[in-house]
From TrEMBL:
Protein's UniProt keywords contain ATP-binding: no
Organism of this sequence: Alcanivorax quisquiliarum
Protein name per its UniProtKB record: Penicillin-binding protein activator LpoB
Annotated InterPro entries: LpoB
Coiled coil spans: none
Tagged with keyword Signal: yes
Keywords: Signal
Signal sequence coordinates: 1-21
Length: 195
């Protein structure tokens, strides 16, 4: 009897321990939960970039030159843990790939300064090849925004409303040159019997 029980237990452990991993389409609609997910990130980034690139004053501004922009991290004003840096990375990448903008990255300023100090002060770098200090280009515009949510629920339904706001400010004048909002609503319903 004990041998049979051990065999059943071993079989159960073997079956429950089997894992299957497979690749999926990274752009496919993800509907596992009502939480903020990859589909939401991709949709927001795509719609925001399209909106910015088709805004008439921005079209005119980028016809003859590529303005320099920096992206401030999007504020997460939801109750969820959302990697807003991923949202800003996607927006910046799409804007760079449009060929209409150039970007400075404020998140690496300290590391750039360390490298420049190394080149100019360590004595290990040929001064003829060292980067000249004070020659970096300043940003003309700043992109910044916020992600907010409103969550409503009752016994059977959970409704989540997300609003993403993004602004582009002229750093010299302080004028907001462009602003847009994108909204997402997701609803999860349980059956009457909780299945």
């Amino acid at each position: 009897m004990r041998v049979i029980m051990m065999a059943v237990l071993a079989t159960a452990l073997l079956i429950s321990g089997c894992t299957r991993v497979q690749y999926g389409d990274a752009t496919a609609t993800e509907t596992v939960t009502v939480d903020f997910g990859s589909t939401d990130l991709q949709m927001i980034a795509s719609q925001m970039v399209d909106d910015l690139l088709t805004f008439p004053p921005v079209v005119q501004m980028t016809m003859q030159r590529r303005p320099v922009v920096f992206v401030d991290r999007v504020q997460n004003r939801t109750v969820e843990h959302i990697d807003t840096e991923s949202v800003t990375d996607s927006i910046r990448t799409r804007l760079i790939q449009s060929g209409k903008f150039r970007f400075v990255d404020m998140t690496v300023v300290d590391r750039v300064r360390q490298q420049m100090d190394f080149q100019t002060q360590s004595g290990m770098v040929d001064p003829a090849t060292a980067v000249t200090l004070g020659r970096q280009i300043g940003a003309e515009f700043m992109l910044y925004g916020a992600l907010t949510s409103i969550v409503k629920r009752d016994n059977r339904t959970k409704d989540v409303y997300y609003k993403f706001t993004l602004n582009m400010m002229n750093l010299e004048t302080g004028i907001i040159e462009w602003s847009s909002e994108k909204e997402i609503r997701k609803t999860r319903s349980r059956s009457l019997f909780g299945l």
